[in-house]
Amino acid sequence: MIDPLTLYTFIPATLALNLTPGVDMMFCLGLGLRSGARPAVAASAGISAGGMVHVTLAGLGLGAVIATLPWVFDVIRWIGVGYLLWLARAALGSTPLTGAKLVPKTVMRAFRDGMFVNLANPKVILFVLAFIPQFIDPARGGILGQFLIYGLVLAIGGFLVNSSAGIFAGGLGRKLTGSPRLTRGLGFVSAGIFTALAARLAFYERA
Question: What is the Cα–Cα distance from 105 to 93, expressed in whole angstroms?
Fold first, then answer.
C-alpha cells in the first residue's frame, strides 16, 4: 500500500518536525517539571493518541470541515485556550508554600490532559491536512489506510521526542525540589508555560 521509498522520505521529515519545539513538547516539559517523568510520558502517549484521532478525521475528509468553517475552528481553539489556562491555574493553586515535592498527577489523568490538549488544538488537523497528503498516492488505493500509516509514524516519533523532553524535565524537577522556594518556582514556571501556550493558541491566525 505504501511505497517504501516514500516512507523512507517521510520518516526523516517527520523526525525534523517532531524535534521542532511546539505546543506538545512545551506541554510535556511543563508537566514534567510540575509532576515528574511518568505523568509526562503518559501525557506524551495521550498527545499521540489525539494525533491519531486528527489523522483519522483528516483521512475521512472531516478535517475539511474545520479547514473551511471558521466558527468550528474558533470554537475548538477557544476550548483549548480555556483548558490550558485552567491547567496554568491548577499549577499555581497546587504549588506548596512549604515542603519540597513534586505535585502528584495520576498516569490516566496525565494521558487525558495530553489527549485533550492535542484534540483542542485545531492547528494539528490543519497541519495534518497540509503535510500528509504530500505523501499520499491515490493510485495505491486505501486513502484512509495511507493516512493512518503515516499518522502512526508521526505519532510514534512525537511520542519518543515528547517523552524524552518530559523525562528530562522530570529529572530536573526532582533536582530542583530541594527547597520550598524552588518548589514554588517550578509551579510558576509550569503555569507560565501553559499560559504562553494558551496565548499562542488564542492569537493564532490561519493562513
Answer: 14
CA–CA separation, 104 and 65 (whole Å): 39
- The 10s digit of each residue's pLDDT in 11-51 is 888 887 788 777 888 889 888 888 888 999 999 999 999 99
Tell whether 156 is covered by a domain.
yes
Q: Is residue 105 part of a domain?
A: yes
Domain count, the chain: 1
All cell numbers assigned to 172 = 530536573
Distance of CA 110 to the CA centre of its chain: 12
Contacts of 80 (CB under 8 A, 6+ apart): 117, 120, 121, 122, 198, 201
pLDDT tens sequence across 144-157: 888 899 999 999 99
Contact between 32 and 167 (Cβ < 8 Å): yes
Instruction: Judge contact between 110 and 39, C-beta under 8 A.
Output: yes
207 within domain boundaries: no
Q: Quick one: CA dihedral 82, 83, 88, 90, positive or negative? A: positive
